[in-house]
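Hi R.,

Here's the chain you asked about this morning:
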Amino acid sequence: MRIAILSRNRRIYSTRRLVEAGLERGHDVHVIDTLKCYMDINSADPGVWYKGERLTNYDAVIPRIGASVTRYGTAVIRQFEMMGVYCLTESVALGRSRDKLRALQLLSRKGLGLPITGFAHDVYDSKELIRLVGGAPLVVKLLAGTQGRGVVLAHTNKAAESVIDAFRELDAEVLVQEFIEEAGGSDIRCLVIGNRVVAAMQRTASEGEFRSNLHRGGSAQLTKLTPAERATAVKAARTMGLSVAGVDILRSKRGPLVIEVNSSPGLEGIEKVSGKDIAGKIITFVEQNARPNKNRTLTKG
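And the predicted structure, written out as tokens:
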């Protein structure tokens, strides 16, 4: 198979591992810088061009689209879809997962457990938002934040008001969520491929920190999922329409709560903790599913 990996940096761990896994299985793998692609949009023969050459004869595309280039990356994926090339992460699914508000609304509609969440545009709604989620302590999140950036824990209602007002004065859209104290500064990253959770790890925040992201100094260890947690992770990925996803779950008194569905989950932490060849499993899934014109939106919304 000829496989294109859309990635801005061929040296990062996840991209390198996918290339290695593809080559080990005898595939012709190319890393393509998403932002250096340009498109020929026409009804008769749409195309994607890269460094002066038209990209043709690819059997599959594996998008690794960073949050900062979501809009353009989505357009490139959509163009490949128009050309009939199988895309592991579809354009609609990427758009859903990157829009935090839309993602929460879709997950809510499907009945998945979520932290109580408030959202508003007007800065004068701060007190009402805080009341809706049960008061402090609570978490304030920028809609555009990634990897724990733009996430603040407010211990008092007054502190929460100050953070919300400050973000809104900057014309930044924010979500306000209840703080799940019983999670103890930990969350569960579930790596979903197809209809299965293939690996899971518990991430724990470092001392003095509440964000468990490994980029923030958090630690990780293997964990055993309950049947409810496995079902929640798979359903969350399916709701977004993602064939491969990192689903982040909090363990709460009322069961598993989904806090994020990541469309380009990092492979380094989960491979090292689990000891599993996750990149190889992704390539195997592509082998089993890549067919011309097979792209479809897995769910409506």
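The longest strand covers residues 196-204.

Let me know if you need anything else.
M.
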